[in-house]
Amino acid sequence: MATVADQLDSVLDKTARLIELCQALQEENDLLKLENQSLKVALDTSKTKISDLDEKLRVLKVAKSIEGTSEKTLDIKQKINEFVREIDRCVVLLKK
């Protein structure tokens, strides 16, 4: 049967190993937190870039739809002018 001193030494050894393991896990946790933070920054950057590219794509699609024959452009301009005249009429009616 082990003596009390032997049992105490065993408990102290196990406690020391647990402390070392805890410190190692804490260091790993800190590293993982840093990695997580850097990945969040990269994700935010990617989201911003995607948003910018989506906006550029939308602008290009609009430009492509307007692009074309001069008749199409003239039709678009005429429709815009009609809308502006209609808005002006509505404004005049609202002022009365």
Account of the protein in words:
The protein has 96 residues and is mostly helical. Helix content is 93%, strand content 0%. It is built from 2 helices and no strands.
Quick overview of this protein structure:
The chain has 96 residues and is an all-alpha fold. It contains two helices and no strands. The chain is 93% helix and 0% strand.
Annotate the secondary structure layout.
Layout lengths: L3 H63 L3 H26 L1
Largest sheet: none
Contiguous helical run count: 2
Q: State the share of residues found in helices, binned by percent.
A: over 70%
Number of strands: 0
Low-pLDDT segments = none
**Which strand-content bin applies to the residues?**
under 5%
What's the SSE pattern?
HH
The secondary-structure class comes to: mainly alpha
pLDDT average, as an integer? 88
Radius of gyration, in angstroms, nearest whole number: 36 Å
Shape: rod-shaped
